């Protein structure tokens, strides 16, 4: 009877462990899916120039000021016979030296050039570099997190490393969003000075796209932390399991007198 009872207990324990392992795997896979979505949103936000958008009526164009790319497109109501998808989009890189020289010339001739005030916003300022640096670090960390997350269901060490990398991913992405948000609301960054009037820049879709990715990465962090904690708890239980097996066993042949 003792042997049958022990086998029943062992079977129950095995089934419980299987259910726990399956639940942990589902949580990790869900976290990986969220992290992939967050990575796509963050990468799309960084690549887009629509971080700050301003409609300058005297120039008859809409300006998109990004972190590393600036684009200009003509206003839609001025092009009656042209399709929206065929509108020309002129873009320049903030780190392009030839474009930088033109910007410097416009700024020096600010009294005679109406585009000089707007040209200042095409410069590669320090806060652009810090924001872009944090966001690129977040993307790189997210990529490494995915590699560790694939191995996380098989090893508690990888699960812990995965949770740590996701935490750094969410932290660096949040820092990038915060730097841009506060810098974009400064007076010298928020308003564009034209020849006739002053125009206010609005936060573009690229920022909200990246913030959505940051929020989803935080959700992935919560799920990764739960799975890592659960795997560590299972390992602690497995370490104490051999001590339970050291209990004395009573066999019928030793019980006879």
From TrEMBL:
Transmembrane annotation, as ranges: 21-41, 130-152, 159-185, 205-232
InterPro entries: Clc_prot-like
GO CC aspect terms: membrane
Residue stretches in coiled coil: none
UniProt KW keywords: Membrane, Transmembrane, Transmembrane helix
Name used for this protein in its record: Clc-like protein
UniProt source species: Caenorhabditis latens
